[in-house]
Amino acid sequence: MRILVFNAGSSSLKFGVFDTDGTARGEVELLRGGFDRFGPEGCEVALRRDGATTCSRAAHATLGAAIRAVPGLLADHGIDGVAAVGHRIAHGGAEFTRATRLDADTLDRIEALTPLAPLHNPANLEAVSVAQAVWPDLPQVGVFDTAFHLTNPARATTYAVPAEWRAAGLRRFGFHGTSHKYVAGRAAEALGCPLRELRIISLHLGNGASACAIAFGESLDSSMGMTPLEGLVMGTRSGDVDPGAFGYLHRRLGLDIPAIEAALYSDSGLKGLTGASDMRDIEARAAAGEADAQLAINIFAWRARKYVGAYAAAMGGVDALVFTGGVGENSAAMRRRICDGLGFMGLALDTDRNAAVRLEAEEAPIISAHASRVAVLVTRTAEQRMIAREVALALAPAAAPAHPVRLPVAVSGRHAHLSVEAVAALFGPGASLSPAKELRQRGHWAAAERIAIEGPRGRLQNVAILGPLRPRTQIEVSRTDAFALGLDVPVRDSGQLDGTPRVTLIGPAGRYETDGLIIAARHIHTNPDDAAAMGLRDGQIVSVRVGGAERGLTFERTLVRVAEAAFTEMHIDTDEANAAGIGAEGDGALITDERAATILPDEG
Fold first, then answer.
1. CA–CA dist 441, 141 (Å, integer)
2. Are the beta carbons of 526 and 560 closer than 8 angstroms?
3. What is the pLDDT of residues 42-61, one digit of tens each?
4. How far is it, in rounded angstroms, from Cα 182 to Cα 178?
5. In the chain, where does the domain assigned CATH 3.30.420.40 lie?
6. Chain-wide mean pLDDT for the chain?
7. What number of helices (H) and strands (E) belong to the chain?
8. Are 379 and 181 in contact (CB under 8 A)?
9. Which of 156, 163, 148, 167 is nearest to 230 (CA)?
10. Looking at the chain, which residues constitute the CATH 2.40.40 domain(s)?
């Protein structure tokens, strides 16, 4: 599918044309370009094709004029057959979770979100309006900066403010989601490891800057908040500021809220510290001895390093740190400043590798030392490329299942999968477990033996043990169980145990302290034949409707696991079952028209 992508700003327009099937394997960039610095005298134009860039000036004085010039540019380069137009939309609120067709109703709902992104959404919507007039017969699809972060848990998105404010929509959203999603997948590809096995911190450092904690393929937290003001120091935006500053500035300087807000967006950040917003200029001035520029560089690096450390703690560790954005890609000195304070977590930069980075295309060089426990990478962000993929996936017809898609739903109570060492500690040297009940998953069983789990606040008795034994002990509880134990337990896929809480298991022969305590992410087990009949693939993320009409719920972000001889069923925990109003077993309906694809390892 050939897709034209627009990323519109108030004074610039980026565009690209891609042939894509929604994956990195089947993707070709045909043309990339940009119009910059719109003004009465026209604008600057840069075009890139086949690795070569040409620069010129044109008479296009506005965003609309630039978009209307694109058909001529495509014709000049022999590009036709565009099937859809994709648009970057900065703020989609909590409603837009994935790429969405832009019709009149959808555009009205996006426009209602403008107060949350007053500098970005208006330009995005103007681009859509002009593109609809230029290409009236093509589908227009919006891809939202905020969508990637809608997997953030409530503890990361909720401000501790009065309920009335929260009811009015005050919450954290996060931005740069398309960039963070792309670079996480690109890093996983470069490391040769599935994205769902990695904990990644992405630093998008440019005129707009943000950090993102990406735990096993999903955004866990982002430094930007309800608006793009929160978080890191940026070119003209302040980043984190004490909200008490509003009252102070009003009392001290007589400033009203609009004036303060405008200054935080346009006259703060690097510009507020030095009078300049370009890090290249600031680094040059700092090298010449200018104290304000030196301070600005130190503040920029300090804030980024704090977020990296915080996100490593929040995820229970980190496997990779990825730099992107204009500063992240081009400033070896800034990468060094940020990384030099992170040796405590096993991160070591290779000075020569760092200095040698020269990005030409989509490469993602590793710049960490060979002995570093954390991989450090640099890569160009490719938001337009990612938008094209999302558009292709949104417009691809859903696979039609061969039969009605009904799923058995099994409710998993608290249980443990033990290692050989755990069995010996809990039941005595040489002890073995006694299979008492075969489970529906072939080769799996429930043991006759039971154990207790003890945390700092309480103990869970009569906990089931499931076999066969595993190389590493894993204990699965519900969110309610976690509070009863007094522990902060992460939601994880089975086997993702690094950085999980330690807990004490109690058996008749002794006690065994171990990590591996998780709340199991809901998932579907299925075999290749059933998966093909349902139009599913391994690693896909789907939605499932569970329960009856009165208390039924739609469980989104449900992972599909395909394995030979697997019995097809969905697994949820007791809290989820209670919420949906079902007992130990039930059934669910796969929502085929709302399927969303996850990023597979070979999709970048």
1. 41
2. yes
3. 999 999 998 889 999 999 99
4. 6
5. 2-144, 179-386
6. 92
7. 19, 28
8. no
9. 156
10. 522-603
What does the block give as tokens for 125? 């919507």
pLDDT digits (tens, 9 = 90+) for 473-509: 999 999 999 999 999 999 999 999 998 999 999 999 9
Orientation angle between helical segments 332-339 and 291-315, nearest 10 degrees: 50
Q: CA 417, 516, 316: angle at the middle one, nearest 5?
A: 160
Which DSSP symbol is given to 197? Answer: G
- One DSSP character per residue, 132-162 reads HHHSTTS-EEEEETTGGGGGS-HHHH--SS-
**pTM given for the model:** 0.87
E strand or H helix at 553: strand 553-562
| Rounded distance between C-alpha atoms, residue 202 and residue 308, angstroms | 9
Give the whole-angstrom CA distance, residue 102 versus residue 111: 12
Distance CA 564, CA 173 (A): 40
CATH number for the region 2-144 comes to 3.30.420.40
pLDDT of the residue at 601: 36
Q: What is the pLDDT of residues 60-91, one digit of tens each?
A: 999 999 999 999 999 999 999 999 999 999 99
Mean pLDDT of 530-556: 85
Tell me which architecture the domain covering 522-603 has in CATH: Beta Barrel (2.40)
Per-residue pLDDT of 259-308, as tens digits, reads 999 999 999 999 999 999 999 999 999 999 999 999 999 999 999 999 99
Catalytic residue numbers read 145
DSSP state of 193: S
CATH fold of 179-386: Nucleotidyltransferase; domain 5 (3.30.420)
Query: How far apart, in Å, do the first and last CA atoms of the chain sit?
Result: 18
Which phi-psi region, left, alpha or beta, contains residue 75 (left: φ > 0; alpha: ψ -120 to 50)? alpha
Structure tokens at 369: 């030392």
446 CB neighbour count, 10 Å cutoff: 17
Please identify which residue in the block is written with the tokens 């529906």: 440
Distances (CA, A) of 60 to 11, 68, 242: 11, 9, 41
Give the C-alpha separation, 279 to 329, whole Å: 12
Nearby residues of 479 by Cβ (< 8 Å), 6 or more positions away = 489, 519, 573, 575
Provide the Cα torsion 184, 185, 187, 193; round to 10°: 120
CB 448 within 8 A of CB 439: no
Q: What is the mean pLDDT of residues 328-333?
A: 96
Torsion of CA 190, 195, 197, 198, to 10 degrees: 70
Encode pLDDT of 409-454 as tens digits.
999 999 999 999 999 999 999 999 999 999 989 999 999 999 999 9
8 A C-beta contact, residue 322 and residue 357: no
Q: Dihedral of the CA atoms 18, 23, 27, 33 (nearest 10)? A: 40
Beta bridge partners of 85: 4, 140
Instruction: Give pLDDT tens digits for 144-159.
Output: 999 999 999 999 999 9
**Mean pLDDT, rounded, for 545-554:** 79
